[in-house]
């Protein structure tokens, strides 16, 4: 059974954490300013999360991310949220959210509160978009993917198509264009595993898409808003390290609290390639959960663990976990 704590109230949002900036026009008054710079990080309940996309079954790479974030936050006596990142409608596979949840249960993970889904957060994303529009940071980009040079920073062709904030409507439904955010300056953070990171936004990131041409919120905006809303410690795969600057830039633009980050290495085969579907499987045949947990534990660079059952494994693992033992590499061969 999962611990059904009342998460109706954001665990981070107790009274004094409300952002008290004046409504000076830079942020629409209805924007949910739940967390802000007044927050004293030491007074917060640590909150971690596992946020799989429902694009297939749980695989070994996701098991690694789940295990690392779970051990990290449980060792801090924090809450662990399960969030299904299902905003990418076209890529979602029916039934895979249930399948992932079922696998996590078999692996013995216990998440706190109800399972969340990004598809339930549409209003939150629209408010965030409206806030960025009111700051004149959003423009409509009608460039097709094919018309842009591949692998290069977006050259700012449509920057003059500024979308204006209209207080009478928060509906900025797009048609035949995406919405991009103008990002300037730089973002720096210290990744707890990969070390100091620094990104000059204009040179290395460019104007990111925050709302897609097919009218889905872009991952960078959705993930930034959800993590800032509820999460203090993000532990995930290093394949997402490159997305972190964009997410931090969005949080900074919106004046939201930033979580701390740790990016674990991605498992690859001996040739350095992403694991194939077969070698990446983490589906559990009867009785095989413990060997897979031990394999993941070993991959994460942890000291040997003695465990005779799944529950035995977790009670020891949470005590024994050392983030400092996780290899500080982007990839590790399995
Ligand atoms: Zn454009």
Provide keyphrases for this structure.
Rossmann fold, three-stranded antiparallel β-sheet, three-stranded parallel β-sheet, binds zinc ion, 28% helix
Textual characterization of the structure:
The protein has 334 residues and is α/β, with parallel strands linked by helices. The chain has a domain at 46-120 and 265-334: 3-Layer(aba) Sandwich (Rossmann fold). 28% of the residues lie in helices and 16% in strands. The longest helix is centred in the first third of the chain and has 16 residues, at 60-75. The radius of gyration is 20 Å and the shape is elongated. The model is unreliable at 1-40 (pLDDT under 50). The structure holds zinc ion (ZN). The site of zinc ion has 5 residues, from loops. Residues 141-143, 157-158 line the site of zinc ion.
Element layout with pairings:
Blueprint: E1 47-50, H1 60-75, E2 79-84, H2 96-106, E3 116-117, H3 122-134, E4 138-141, E5 178-181, E6 186-191, E7 195-200, H4 201-204, E8 208-211, H5 219-230, E9 233-237, H6 241-254, E10 260-264, E11 266-268, H7 289-299, H8 310-320, E12 331-333
Parallel strand pairs: 1-2, 2-3, 9-10, 11-12
Antiparallel strand pairs: 4-5, 5-8, 6-7
Helix pairs in contact: 1-7, 1-8, 5-6
This protein binds zinc ion (ZN).
CATH architectural category of the domain at 46-120 and 265-334? 3-Layer(aba) Sandwich
> Might you state the CATH topology name of the domain at 46-120 and 265-334?
Rossmann fold
Using only C-alpha atoms, the radius of gyration works out to 20 Å
Major β-sheet strand ordering: 1-2-3
Average of per-residue pLDDT values: 85
CATH class category label of the domain at 46-120 and 265-334: Alpha Beta
Structural class: alpha/beta
Strand content: 15-25%
Give start-end ranges of low-pLDDT stretches. 1-40
